[in-house]
Design a protein that fits this description.
- There is one protein chain.
- With 166 residues, the protein is mainly α.
- The chain has 2 domains: 82 residues; 78 residues, no CATH class.
- The protein is built from 10 helices and no strands.
- The protein starts with a helix and ends in a 7-residue tail after the last helix.
Length: 166
């Protein structure tokens, strides 16, 4: 599943939380995201900035559902999980024994395969502490970090009812 498809299928509340986090924690990134999406739709940033924040976020969500916004959407998801959801990354990397910097930033290359038992432990640990929709979005985002994803993770995402996006 590509980033634009994730935005088509995720609960709007997750997207609202993500953009509100950007707006609260990194106003420049929020403005850059809004500006990039405006440019891609041939709109002026100033036009969108005049709208209330809730309308801006709704517009960004709708725009990120378009295939043409895939690259922007993938980047925003990566930044959100790297900076706004570090605990998810740390929990996942620790359970899979993927070396990282203590904040979830992987050190070295990503593994070529994922141990199914460790993956189950990681998924269970994430679901114990977090909204299943957020966990699902994170796992889908992680899975698009390689061209074809990880076979083991793809199977979990397809078969685990707890990880349905919507």
């Amino acid at each position: 599943m590509q980033a634009y498809e994730l935005f088509q299928n995720i609960k709007p509340g997750i997207v609202e939380d993500m953009f509100q986090w950007f707006r609260d924690e990194d106003r420049n990134l929020y403005k850059t995201a809004l500006g990039s999406l405006a440019t891609s739709r041939k709109l002026r940033l100033a036009f969108l900035q005049k709208k209330p924040v809730a309308e801006q976020i709704t517009w960004m969500h709708k725009t990120l559902q378009l295939k043409s916004s895939d690259m922007i959407g993938e980047h925003l998801l990566q930044v959100y999980f790297m900076k706004g959801q570090e605990e998810l990354l740390v929990t996942f990397c620790d359970a899979l024994e993927i070396p990282h910097d203590g904040k979830g930033q992987v050190e070295g290359d990503l593994p070529e395969s994922l141990d199914p038992d460790k993956l189950k432990t990681a998924v269970d640990a994430l679901l114990d502490k977090n909204d299943p929709a957020l966990v699902s979005l994170y796992l889908h985002t992680f899975n698009i970090q390689t061209p074809d994803g990880w076979e083991e993770l793809s199977k979990v995402l397809e078969n685990d009812e707890r990880l349905k996006l919507a």
